[in-house]
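This part of the workshop introduces the protein records we will be handling. As an example, a complete record with its sequence and its structure tokens follows.
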Amino acid sequence: MAGVLVIEDDDRIRLALLLALEDEGYLARGAATAEEGLRAQRQEAADYVLVDLMLPGLDGFECIRQLRRDDDVPIVVVSARDDTHDIVAALEAGADDYLVKPVAIKELSARLRALRRRGRTAVAPSAAVPVLAFGPLEISPEAGEVRRAGQPVPVTRTEFRLLCELAEHAGRVLSRQQLLSRVWGYETGDERLVDVHVGRLRQKIEADPANPRHLVTLRGLGYKLQR
């Protein structure tokens, strides 16, 4: 049974989420503060973490950053804040997805199932190829490694899957919706998920992220990885 840690300071919302997740078949536990949630995750790691942004003490953004430093657990933000800046900032901090309150439990459960499928298929179909090279960038799907100029590049599970998907279709343009479906497992969703993760990847793999050479944008079409 998959475990979910819910970091939410509102007692009523936290309890409602815990009960709903249990009804969906998850082992759910809660924390009222970021500090409490971080301790709980270190002591007994959950398979997924839900984080509110408006927390007392450490806010949700810092909570996400600290969670991400410790491990690669899938993180979903569940927040009343629906401003684009907040959504982008949460994704840039390391969240995998973002849902705006009130949340339909069926949608949340579907998102968690998609994250689970991604975890089980972390290696892209191109894994038969030992190394995929794009200039100084080397991707090893089988080993789950990325290197640039021989140096390891730390990437999250989502970033790695995104990079492998683009590498498998090297030179071809993939739309944001195609990437949402293939990497996130969503038939519909917020395309900002793709944009933010592409931006984070560029910061890690490009010599000049503002003028990318390998991970390029085709305006109005999508993204492609080129040699």
Q: What stands out?
A: Helices lie at 11-23, 34-43, 60-70, 84-93, 105-120, 157-168, 176-184, 192-205. DSSP finds eight helices and eleven strands in the chain.
